Amino acid sequence: MILAGKVALMTGAAQGLGKAFADILLKNGAKVSLLDINRAVGLEAKSEFDKIYGDKQTMFIPCDVTSDDQLKDAFKKTMEKFQQLDIVCNNAGVADEKNWQRSVDINLVSAIRGTYLGLHYMSKMTGGAGGVIINVSSLAGIYPIIFAPVYSASKHGVVGFSRAMAGALAAENLGVRINVLCPAFTNTPILDHISSQQTLGQFAGLQQVAVQTVAAVGIIEPSLVAEGFLQLVTDGSRSGEVMRVTKQKGIDYQSYPKN
What we know:
Layout lengths: L6 E4 L5 H12 L3 E6 L2 H15 L4 E5 L5 H15 L4 E4 L9 H23 L8 E6 L12 H24 L3 E8 L13 H4 L6 H11 L4 H13 L7 E5 L3 E4 L6
Parallel strand pairs: 1-2, 1-4, 2-3, 4-5, 5-6, 6-7
Antiparallel strand pairs: 7-8
Helix pairs in contact: 1-8, 3-4, 4-5
């Protein structure tokens, strides 16, 4: 996929990985609809992008991805402004074992909701021109982490859902690819609270395990993950792929037995 002239919708776009993904899309000529629950940080991110790429390349939409109405409205506004949609990235995510249902709602349910909304606008069956969906999971979606079981479950769900959807879309020839991105611990705001009581919930006693795990696995930069993201978006031969990004191996792919 050549990105010049393409339109992307990005959840969790105001900071961290979402902001890095938006930046690399903009660098390659795409337009980006920036969705985030944090209005102040979102407007700041748009202002930064406007100075570099011009104010017509982005729009910011305050959006709580756990709200079906707000997410539907954000997709509608994106289409009204840019008149097309080619790329959807369901990136919004939290680590919150204390309020564990929030983790499931944001990490998994919103990714499912965003995937179906993306299909509504991009599927050739509904008059779309095709496109690609990137669902952001985590290395914890492949290898569970004991100090965040619900986070691990939600991210495993993203992987399983995305792989199954990729097969279904290919079987029905809908013209939409789906890939999954599974980064290791990344230098983003979520990492600042990895061993907090809010993050660990009833497993606050595993605080030291969390710290030691991060140290052992290592921390990567958003720019490296963005390189992998760009590969998944632009390589039209890839669908149903699960990309890992780690300190040890950089960008590679998780292998699964062939059915």
